[in-house]
Amino acid sequence: MQDRAIGVMAPERRRRLVRTAAREFAAAGYEAASLNGIIRDCGLSKSSFYHYVESKRALFDLVVQDLGGELATALRAPAPGDLAGPRFWDDVEDLLHRLLDLARAEPAWTDLGRAFWLPGAPGGDGTPLARALAALHAWLLGALEAGRACGAVRDDLPAPLQADLAAAVLRVLDEWGLQHPEALAGDEGRRLVGVQCAALRRLLEPDDPRAPER
Question: Measured between alpha carbons, how far is 153 from 144 in angstroms, rounded to an integer?
Fold first, then answer.
């Protein structure tokens, strides 16, 4: 019933609801986020809101689903296999810079990033958050396998372990940047992206890397 109702919500109203909710979740946390405040800021009545969305959990799922889809479309991340080659690390850094530029251009995508790591956020099996994180991990694993194939990534550790290590580093850096948005502005933001990529290279690059295959 809920999926059918949300499907008929006017696109602009749905867009406003999702962005208002993302801002509230990011600022207050999942548990403390106020549905009444979100409803009020969207100009909805409670009866209208609950016609479209049945609960706070369903609203959070909608935020992850809609904003995650928008961001993925805008980012246009390459297929992991396309990274294999002499520009592996350059392409990874370019992707991180594109992600930074998108976060600067659309604040809702920054709010989405914060929502990914909220304590208590609904992320059990089958939820949009769990599916999004699984897709990110699968992409990361594929990218590392491409890097191993061309000599840009060390191959003396199991690839799944490398993916877990890289994901942990990226999460720490991501969370820090999201909590310090002032550090992402201007040239400082681009410098931090370079530092982020350098940290990954120190973790993943071979001690004596051979030239990537052409």
Answer: 7
